[in-house]
Amino acid sequence: MLTRALDDTTLADLVADATAAPSMHNAQPWQFRYTRHSRTLALRADFERAMPEADPATRALHVGCGAALLNLRVSAAHHGLDALTTLLPEPSHPAALATVRLDVRPDAPREPADEALAALHPAIRDRHTSRYPFDEQVIPEDVRAGLADAARTEGADFSFLTPIHLETVLELIRDAEGYDRGDPAREAEQEHWTRNTKTEAPVDGIPDYAFGPRDASERATTRDFAGTGVIPGRARVLFENRPQLALLSTLGDRPTDWLSAGQALERVLLTATLHQVSTSFATQPLEWPDLRWLLRDPVYGTGHPQMIIRLGYGPSGPRTPRRPLDEVLTIEP
User: Fold this and answer.
1) What are the backbone dihedrals phi and psi of residue 97, each rounded to the nearest 5 degrees, phi first?
2) What is the pLDDT of residue 276?
3) How many helices (H) and strands (E) would you count in the chain?
4) Measuring CA to CA, how many Å separate 279 from each of 160, 224, 229, 313?
5) Distance from C-alpha of 271 to C-alpha of 239, rounded to nearest angstrom
6) Which residue from 1, 50, 284, 301 has the least number of CB within 10 angstroms?
């Protein structure tokens, strides 16, 4: 039940929180449109920010937008709003990804699900992708279980790789890195989304200060945004010998599943952040269909892999830039 209109300050807070989500190459491929009379915030894909070489089906684009949608739901719960969410509300319009009807509820106790979402809100601003080495401390079982529960709440499966499976996935990551380096079109696409902060003030993409150091052993799982280029003075350090990797999967592999995967991913990342666990991604083999299928555990694996997440204890990583709200938010009567 609505008790008051949604003010512009709250609306700006909601969208700012939503856009703090991660996306492939920090392309931020989303647009938000708020309609006052229906109090509905629509999430639309910005296909001009798609990556036809590495993400031709726009799977990763949908995952990033799903992560933004989860942040929006968390922010709504934090602000005491009911958020009625509908995925793919216009099947004939692929850019229409979700609508969120925002109602201000009367003074009443929150539902447990809303309490759980609101509790994640402090992590939105603290979550950053870390392309730095982590130490060898093992993530405790109770934290691992909590991360799996977070993904399950959003309809996805999350599991840490077993030792044998880990070796297979590490080989696939290295294979994918080799494929990328041998593909000039992909290399150019990645370079398009990197930013030299000495010559520009970026609002999107991966700034050079977020590249992280090179792995002295050449076995790091995170994508090296320097590509085949050389950055003078860039540090070379050893990364963890056996990274703690987890696979996030969904039963289906359609746009609605990709959006659910994005929401599950962000819920996992925010939960990890609250436990002081740093995170990054190893998306390279997901971008090659022949390698993506091989990511599944040969014994226990089911479903479709949507993200490889590296977790551990170490630097949280720097904040990367975000587009101004007036570029991503439109308000209509």
Assistant:
1) -90, -35
2) 98
3) 10, 13
4) 13, 15, 25, 9
5) 24
6) 1
